[in-house]
Amino acid sequence: MKFLLPVALLIAVAAKSTPSKLSAKTEKVVYQSANLMITQVAKNSFVHTSYLQTKTFGKVPCNGMVVKSGSETVVFDTPTGDQESKELIAWISKDLHCKVKAIIPTHFHEDCVGGLKEFERQKIPSFANKNTIEYAKQNKFNIPQRGFTDSLTVKVGTTKVYAIFWGEGHTKDNIVGYFPEDKVLFGGCLIKELQANKGYLGDANVQAWSATVEKIKQAYPAVQVVIPGHGKVGGPSLLDYTIQLFQQ
Q: What's the domain count of the chain?
């Protein structure tokens, strides 16, 4: 695993990757239970959706991402609880015939780390922005094991997936995940589904939010599928919508 990948290389990788055979318009549910849904959104990319009961917003669907190459996967954001994480890991093993190489929470909130202990029990290493680790400790949430500063490159099978901090927005530590092989971006809670409101702003930097997403848009001109932290998967229009939503 390699740290601090230069931004220029990230952009070059994004531009050269091969298009996926599926798009957000051809999503396919491949697993569903009472507490977990898994949807294929590109050839080797999946969204896992679980649910978090909140006081302000009620029962909220929360998205994460699974990417696959060969016999390995990397997961972004845990499901919201240990049981849902157990289901997800079992599905990856039984249906994809893969192991989970790493779990990468995209920020410190419960919808990203709520099921982290199950990954730990199954000896799956966790990686996060160093600030995510610090904020998780301060807020007494589950704590990822290993930290990075700006970016993380993880080799998965015969290819790579990237985790990058582009700036503050939903939180001060929020990162995104990018899988060039399928041209899929996992925006997490930094990116909003179309027509969404601003949502929870208790840990946000609203002033920086649009500029951060603008950097992401410029970095990945070839992106085809964009996964928000909550709600429906879409394309690059989700980036534009988020930029407009938080413009000052």
A: 1
